[in-house]
Amino acid sequence: MTQPNAAPGSPLKAAIVRVTPFEQNCTLIWDEATKVGAVVDPGGDLERIEQAIKQTGISIEKILLTHGHIDHAGGADELREKLGVKIEGPHKNDVILLDNLEKQGKVYGVDGVRNVTPDRWLEEGDRVTVAGHTFEIFHCPGHSPGSVVFFDRAQRFALVGDVLFRGSIGRTDFPYGDHAALISSIKSKLLPLGDDIAFICGHGEPGQFGPERLTNPFLV
Questions:
Q1: Would 6 be classed as within a structural domain?
Q2: Considering the entire predicted model, what is its pTM?
């Protein structure tokens, strides 16, 4: 488990727990003062996630999903049941993915996967709160039809799922992928937020929008 500061000097903290054979960044975010937080994209390996929750000493109030692929959402339904919390996100356009997670599990040889219906679908412009911190929702299709980005404007921090990576972007060769839509989502919605925005993505290391705008080969 790695613990980058989501916003240095602020009470919002984040820890990355890499799960599933796809090395997906399940992320814990929490308020340092209250120790209340959320689990973002629990794709699987729930024992590892639960151990990280215990290690950080936080109380989980909800689960957030950036999109409906198996490595991000495969463990969400079981974790919801275990923790007794609700799931928020992604956008309803990912319903076809979330309704077929069990089939995806069989294809990829991943056990224990459940289909999942969120307690709340998210739309462009919605707000999500975690321990009093507000995240704005951006619907950013392309990697999947219902991918969303969670943006904390006050702390200049975003959870981008597989929309954007450090030095790359999300794959669009999966079913329902759309390369042009993904590039448009990044350029029209994310990069204008500012070069200083720090982000945690679904795979690999965290980054900032500025270096991606200047050097990411898919964006320059």
A1: no
A2: 0.95
